[in-house]
Amino acid sequence: MNAYIESKLPTIYADMNIYRYVAYADISIKDPDRFLWVYSHVHLDEICRNGNTDALDGMKILGAIEISDILDDKFQSVGNIVLREYIDPHSRYEQHLDAISGYEDTSDLFVEQLIRSFGADNFEELRKTPDQMCDQIDSITSILDNETREDLIKKAKTVSIEMKESIEKHLSDHMPIDKTRRAMGITSEDRKSIEVSHSPLDEIWKIISPSVPNISKDQFFGFKPIPGIDGRRTDHSAWIDRRCTYCTQYVRY
Protein backbone atom coordinates (compact mmCIF):
# COMPACT_ATOMS: atom_id res chain seq x y z
CA MET A 1 0.00 0.00 0.00
CA ASN A 2 1.38 3.39 -1.01
CA ALA A 3 0.50 6.56 0.88
CA TYR A 4 0.25 9.96 -0.73
CA ILE A 5 -0.14 13.59 0.20
CA GLU A 6 -0.99 16.41 -2.17
CA SER A 7 1.16 19.51 -2.08
CA LYS A 8 2.28 22.12 -4.60
CA LEU A 9 5.69 22.25 -2.92
CA PRO A 10 8.34 19.56 -2.44
CA THR A 11 7.56 18.03 0.93
CA ILE A 12 10.29 17.44 3.50
CA TYR A 13 9.71 15.14 6.45
CA ALA A 14 12.72 16.47 8.35
CA ASP A 15 14.68 14.59 10.95
CA MET A 16 14.27 15.85 14.51
CA ASN A 17 17.86 17.09 14.57
CA ILE A 18 17.24 19.36 11.59
CA TYR A 19 14.52 21.16 13.50
CA ARG A 20 16.86 21.45 16.48
CA TYR A 21 19.70 22.81 14.36
CA VAL A 22 17.36 25.44 12.91
CA ALA A 23 16.21 26.37 16.41
CA TYR A 24 19.82 26.76 17.58
CA ALA A 25 20.74 28.63 14.36
CA ASP A 26 23.41 25.98 13.81
CA ILE A 27 22.31 25.71 10.18
CA SER A 28 20.81 28.23 7.81
CA ILE A 29 18.40 27.00 5.14
CA LYS A 30 18.27 29.03 1.95
CA ASP A 31 14.72 30.02 1.01
CA PRO A 32 12.98 27.51 3.30
CA ASP A 33 9.59 28.60 1.93
CA ARG A 34 10.42 26.71 -1.26
CA PHE A 35 9.50 23.58 0.64
CA LEU A 36 6.64 22.29 2.73
CA TRP A 37 8.09 21.19 6.06
CA VAL A 38 6.11 18.51 7.87
CA TYR A 39 6.25 16.50 11.07
CA SER A 40 4.15 13.74 12.61
CA HIS A 41 3.18 12.37 15.99
CA VAL A 42 6.48 10.44 15.88
CA HIS A 43 8.32 13.73 16.39
CA LEU A 44 6.03 14.62 19.27
CA ASP A 45 6.55 11.20 20.86
CA GLU A 46 10.32 11.63 20.64
CA ILE A 47 10.14 15.07 22.24
CA CYS A 48 8.05 13.56 25.03
CA ARG A 49 10.57 10.78 25.58
CA ASN A 50 13.69 12.95 25.72
CA GLY A 51 12.12 16.04 27.30
CA ASN A 52 13.90 18.40 24.88
CA THR A 53 11.39 20.78 23.30
CA ASP A 54 13.89 22.86 21.32
CA ALA A 55 12.83 21.21 18.07
CA LEU A 56 9.42 22.86 18.44
CA ASP A 57 11.09 26.24 17.93
CA GLY A 58 12.65 24.96 14.72
CA MET A 59 9.28 23.66 13.54
CA LYS A 60 7.77 27.08 14.20
CA ILE A 61 10.55 28.90 12.35
CA LEU A 62 10.01 26.69 9.30
CA GLY A 63 6.22 26.79 9.56
CA ALA A 64 6.07 23.01 9.78
CA ILE A 65 2.66 21.34 9.43
CA GLU A 66 1.57 18.05 10.94
CA ILE A 67 0.76 15.10 8.70
CA SER A 68 -1.46 12.23 9.78
CA ASP A 69 -2.53 8.84 8.48
CA ILE A 70 -6.17 8.41 7.53
CA LEU A 71 -7.52 5.47 9.53
CA ASP A 72 -10.55 3.28 8.99
CA ASP A 73 -13.07 2.25 11.65
CA LYS A 74 -10.62 -0.43 12.84
CA PHE A 75 -7.86 2.17 13.22
CA GLN A 76 -5.92 0.73 10.27
CA SER A 77 -4.25 3.01 7.73
CA VAL A 78 -6.16 3.30 4.46
CA GLY A 79 -3.00 4.44 2.67
CA ASN A 80 -3.58 8.18 2.50
CA ILE A 81 -2.01 11.00 4.46
CA VAL A 82 -3.55 14.38 5.17
CA LEU A 83 -2.03 17.75 5.97
CA ARG A 84 -3.46 19.29 9.11
CA GLU A 85 -4.17 22.99 9.46
CA TYR A 86 -1.16 24.86 10.76
CA ILE A 87 -1.05 25.20 14.52
CA ASP A 88 1.74 26.55 16.66
CA PRO A 89 3.94 23.48 17.36
CA HIS A 90 4.11 24.34 21.06
CA SER A 91 0.31 24.31 21.28
CA ARG A 92 0.14 21.09 19.26
CA TYR A 93 2.64 19.48 21.61
CA GLU A 94 0.53 20.42 24.64
CA GLN A 95 -2.46 18.80 22.93
CA HIS A 96 -0.37 15.69 22.31
CA LEU A 97 0.69 15.49 25.95
CA ASP A 98 -2.93 15.74 27.02
CA ALA A 99 -3.95 13.01 24.55
CA ILE A 100 -1.34 10.50 25.76
CA SER A 101 -1.61 11.35 29.44
CA GLY A 102 -1.41 8.13 31.42
CA TYR A 103 -0.06 6.10 28.49
CA GLU A 104 3.33 7.73 27.94
CA ASP A 105 5.36 4.57 28.54
CA THR A 106 3.22 2.11 26.60
CA SER A 107 5.87 1.44 23.96
CA ASP A 108 8.46 0.65 26.64
CA LEU A 109 6.96 -2.83 26.98
CA PHE A 110 8.29 -3.69 23.53
CA VAL A 111 11.48 -1.67 23.84
CA GLU A 112 12.61 -3.78 26.80
CA GLN A 113 12.40 -6.95 24.71
CA LEU A 114 14.11 -5.32 21.75
CA ILE A 115 17.09 -3.96 23.68
CA ARG A 116 17.43 -7.28 25.52
CA SER A 117 18.09 -8.97 22.20
CA PHE A 118 20.86 -6.42 21.56
CA GLY A 119 22.63 -7.15 24.83
CA ALA A 120 20.99 -4.98 27.48
CA ASP A 121 21.25 -6.25 31.06
CA ASN A 122 17.59 -5.55 31.79
CA PHE A 123 16.10 -8.91 32.75
CA GLU A 124 14.40 -7.63 35.91
CA GLU A 125 12.75 -4.79 33.96
CA LEU A 126 11.80 -7.26 31.23
CA ARG A 127 10.10 -9.62 33.70
CA LYS A 128 7.76 -6.81 34.74
CA THR A 129 6.42 -6.18 31.23
CA PRO A 130 3.68 -8.88 31.21
CA ASP A 131 2.09 -7.43 34.36
CA GLN A 132 2.58 -3.91 33.03
CA MET A 133 0.74 -4.90 29.87
CA CYS A 134 -2.20 -6.17 31.95
CA ASP A 135 -2.24 -2.95 33.95
CA GLN A 136 -2.37 -0.91 30.76
CA ILE A 137 -5.18 -3.00 29.30
CA ASP A 138 -7.06 -2.56 32.56
CA SER A 139 -6.62 1.22 32.34
CA ILE A 140 -7.43 1.52 28.63
CA THR A 141 -10.64 -0.52 28.92
CA SER A 142 -12.01 1.42 31.88
CA ILE A 143 -14.51 3.24 29.64
CA LEU A 144 -15.98 0.03 28.18
CA ASP A 145 -18.98 -1.88 29.40
CA ASN A 146 -18.23 -4.49 32.06
CA GLU A 147 -18.75 -7.55 29.90
CA THR A 148 -16.45 -6.36 27.10
CA ARG A 149 -13.89 -5.11 29.58
CA GLU A 150 -13.77 -8.38 31.50
CA ASP A 151 -13.39 -10.35 28.26
CA LEU A 152 -10.43 -8.22 27.13
CA ILE A 153 -8.77 -8.34 30.54
CA LYS A 154 -9.16 -12.13 30.59
CA LYS A 155 -7.49 -12.40 27.18
CA ALA A 156 -4.71 -10.03 28.28
CA LYS A 157 -4.00 -12.20 31.31
CA THR A 158 -3.73 -15.27 29.09
CA VAL A 159 -1.23 -13.48 26.87
CA SER A 160 0.60 -12.23 29.95
CA ILE A 161 1.12 -15.78 31.21
CA GLU A 162 2.49 -16.84 27.83
CA MET A 163 4.79 -13.81 27.78
CA LYS A 164 6.17 -14.67 31.21
CA GLU A 165 6.89 -18.25 30.14
CA SER A 166 8.56 -17.09 26.94
CA ILE A 167 10.70 -14.51 28.75
CA GLU A 168 11.88 -17.02 31.34
CA LYS A 169 12.59 -19.65 28.70
CA HIS A 170 14.19 -17.63 25.92
CA LEU A 171 15.47 -14.36 27.38
CA SER A 172 16.89 -15.29 30.77
CA ASP A 173 20.41 -15.75 29.39
CA HIS A 174 22.21 -12.45 29.04
CA MET A 175 24.03 -11.74 25.80
CA PRO A 176 26.61 -9.04 26.67
CA ILE A 177 26.66 -6.13 24.25
CA ASP A 178 30.34 -6.71 23.49
CA LYS A 179 29.54 -10.28 22.43
CA THR A 180 26.73 -8.98 20.23
CA ARG A 181 29.11 -6.49 18.62
CA ARG A 182 31.72 -9.16 18.02
CA ALA A 183 29.11 -11.37 16.39
CA MET A 184 28.40 -8.50 13.99
CA GLY A 185 32.09 -8.00 13.41
CA ILE A 186 32.22 -4.64 15.17
CA THR A 187 35.30 -4.02 17.32
CA SER A 188 36.15 -1.08 19.56
CA GLU A 189 38.48 0.23 16.87
CA ASP A 190 35.70 -0.04 14.31
CA ARG A 191 33.39 2.02 16.50
CA LYS A 192 36.01 4.71 17.00
CA SER A 193 36.67 4.99 13.27
CA ILE A 194 32.94 5.13 12.56
CA GLU A 195 32.48 8.00 15.03
CA VAL A 196 35.03 10.21 13.27
CA SER A 197 34.37 9.12 9.69
CA HIS A 198 32.89 11.43 7.08
CA SER A 199 30.05 9.00 6.45
CA PRO A 200 29.18 6.71 9.38
CA LEU A 201 26.54 4.93 7.29
CA ASP A 202 29.16 3.95 4.72
CA GLU A 203 31.43 2.60 7.44
CA ILE A 204 28.60 0.63 9.06
CA TRP A 205 27.59 -0.75 5.69
CA LYS A 206 31.10 -2.03 5.05
CA ILE A 207 30.84 -4.10 8.21
CA ILE A 208 27.34 -5.53 7.86
CA SER A 209 26.94 -5.81 4.07
CA PRO A 210 28.49 -9.31 3.86
CA SER A 211 25.66 -10.56 6.09
CA VAL A 212 22.84 -9.06 3.96
CA PRO A 213 23.37 -10.09 0.33
CA ASN A 214 21.08 -9.07 -2.52
CA ILE A 215 20.22 -5.71 -1.00
CA SER A 216 21.80 -2.30 -1.49
CA LYS A 217 22.98 0.10 1.18
CA ASP A 218 20.20 2.58 0.38
CA GLN A 219 17.59 -0.17 0.56
CA PHE A 220 18.91 -1.45 3.90
CA PHE A 221 18.79 1.97 5.54
CA GLY A 222 15.38 2.80 4.05
CA PHE A 223 16.47 5.42 1.51
CA LYS A 224 15.18 3.37 -1.42
CA PRO A 225 12.31 0.85 -1.63
CA ILE A 226 12.95 -2.88 -1.60
CA PRO A 227 11.23 -4.68 -4.50
CA GLY A 228 8.15 -6.49 -3.26
CA ILE A 229 7.81 -4.31 -0.16
CA ASP A 230 5.48 -1.33 -0.42
CA GLY A 231 6.78 2.02 0.70
CA ARG A 232 5.10 5.28 1.63
CA ARG A 233 5.62 7.93 -1.00
CA THR A 234 4.49 11.50 -1.52
CA ASP A 235 3.37 12.81 -4.89
CA HIS A 236 6.92 14.15 -5.32
CA SER A 237 9.17 11.40 -3.97
CA ALA A 238 9.76 9.26 -0.93
CA TRP A 239 9.78 11.18 2.34
CA ILE A 240 12.99 9.55 3.42
CA ASP A 241 14.63 10.22 0.05
CA ARG A 242 13.84 13.90 0.34
CA ARG A 243 14.63 14.06 4.02
CA CYS A 244 18.06 12.61 3.45
CA THR A 245 18.82 14.55 0.26
CA TYR A 246 17.69 17.96 1.37
CA CYS A 247 18.79 17.79 4.98
CA THR A 248 22.28 16.70 3.98
CA GLN A 249 22.39 19.45 1.39
CA TYR A 250 21.33 22.28 3.63
CA VAL A 251 23.40 21.27 6.62
CA ARG A 252 26.36 22.33 4.49
CA TYR A 253 25.12 25.90 3.97
Report mean pLDDT, rounded to a whole number: 78
N to C succession of SSEs: EHEHHEEHHHHHHHHH
Strand content: 5-15%
- The main sheet orders its strands as 1-2-3-4
- Please count the helical segments: 12
Largest sheet geometry: 4 strands, mixed
Radius of gyration (CA) equals: 21 Å
- Straight-line distance between termini: 36 Å
Helix percent reads: 40-55%
Write down the domain tally: 2
What brief labels describe this structure?
2 domains, globular, 12 helices, single chain, 4 strands, 4-stranded mixed sheet, disordered C terminus, 253 residues, alpha/beta
What does this structure look like?
This protein has 253 residues and is of the alpha/beta class. The protein folds into two domains: 1-104 and 225-253, no CATH class; 108-170. Helices cover 53% and strands 8% of the residues. It has twelve helices and four strands; from the N terminus they run E-H-E-H-H-E-E-H-H-H-H-H-H-H-H-H. A four-stranded mixed β-sheet has the order 1-2-3-4. Strand 1, helix 1 and strand 2 (36-39) form a beta-alpha-beta unit. The chain starts with 10 loop residues before the first strand and ends with a helix.
